[in-house]
Amino acid sequence: MKAGCSIVEKPEGGGGYQFPDWAYKTESSPGSRQIQLWHFILELLQKEEFRHVIAWQQGEYGEFVIKDPDEVARLWGRRKCKPQMNYDKLSRAL
To answer: 79 lies in a domain?
Structure first.
């Protein structure tokens, strides 16, 4: 069974960060059938409900801070159907 994937919504009104149009498409990056880690991170960064886990760094364009690395790894493992995922494995992919 395939894990559900969320749509990354393009910000309205020009506020916030701007990414290429293809970065807002669901599930995958160009040339890939599966979501890539960078796209998953972008999804988390854009959702208010994950601000306690990962957030954009204040005053620094394009930099983010992972506040709860174990939770980010757990969420990534759930998305990829890999329950043994941990931050050590995820950080190597970064």
So the answer is: yes
- Would 80 be classed as within a structural domain? yes
**Structural domain contains residue 41:** yes
CA distance 54 to 59: 15
Which range has the top average pLDDT, 2-16, 31-45, 47-61? 47-61
Structure tokens at 86: 């941990």
CB 5 within 8 A of CB 75: no
Over residues 21-32, the mean pLDDT reads 55
Coil, strand or helix at 94: coil
pLDDT tens column, 76-93 = 999 999 999 999 999 999
* Four-CA torsion 55, 82, 91, 54, nearest 10 degrees: 10
Domain hosting residue 56, numbered range: 34-93
The enclosing domain of 86 has a CATH number of 1.10.10.10
Residues β-bridged to residue 64: 56
